[in-house]
Target: Putative mRNA 3-end processing factor
Amino acid sequence: MRRRRAECNRPGPGPRYSRAMSVLSVTEHGLYCPAGDFYIDPWAPVDRALITHGHSDHARPGHRRYLATDTGAPVIRHRLGAIALETIRYAETRRIGAAMVSFHPAGHVPGSAQIRVEVAGEVWVVSGDYKPGPDGLSEPFEPVPCHTFISECTFGLPVFRWRPQAQVMAEIRDWWAENAAQGQASLLGAYALGKAQRLLVGLGDSGGPILTHGAIEATCRVMRAQGIALPDTVPVTPETDPRTHPGALVLAPPSALGSTWARRFGQASTGLASGWMALRGVRRRRAADRGFVLSDHADWDGLNAAIRATGAERVLMTHGYTGPFRRWLAEQGYDAGIVATAWEGETTEGDAE
Model:
């Protein structure tokens, strides 16, 4: 079948993709643009790095120069320290060498971006991580017409289909209320950047006090300072006495659940908020009382809809279920390939983001 064309000039048939590509190529340091002499989300130190967002598998230390969105920059500085970071607004076009570059909302976390690169009339878009559905926190995803779309596919199987966010938040509220009625705290595992703040916005101030682990509170503090509205929280400190916060919801990184830090809350109920909670085996392995299916990545339907909206005829997959998703896209008529990267995406274990 023939794919709908984006509103940009189409290139001729291209090669299958391993290391050598056209606008971007894969090197030992990461995705590289020869025309602009820059890298996108490189995993090894480079001279100039364009960063899609602040998660640790995309924003790494050691680069000489960084470029990120003005909204994403505060968290990146918080995580990486004193770096040479230049900012760019969404949809602002900037010439870097012989390449024209612009950043566009990815809907993943506040300030996250897809990066559009145009060289000699050919347009490629690197998605980073993205989520088409609105979440009340991040800037909504905007499809960008292109010839080639480099797409994550963390959840690139049909089993991953997200329920409406309001339903998941209602489930969490009910679980929280049931625990509070039994005099228990509710410990909910969520990534410190993005997921925790999304939960805060979605849950609001309706259920009682919300306590936060130091890693989450530090990120919330950065976002509040840049004008992002978040409900009030109570930071957990060594002096925190759970008896003064009966029935509280406690937000913590997943690795903190079951730790000495968590045991201060006594016989608490534990939950995890992650797209991987859609898999029973992962729920059992993480030994949480409850799993809530909530992800900051696109699900199966979201991936397919986003790819269609770009109008791209060539789609290259990174991290996740790249093999099965590539085969699916090829069956739909796309020129589909896989680009091996060191990106991790949302993992089933630990706190990699």
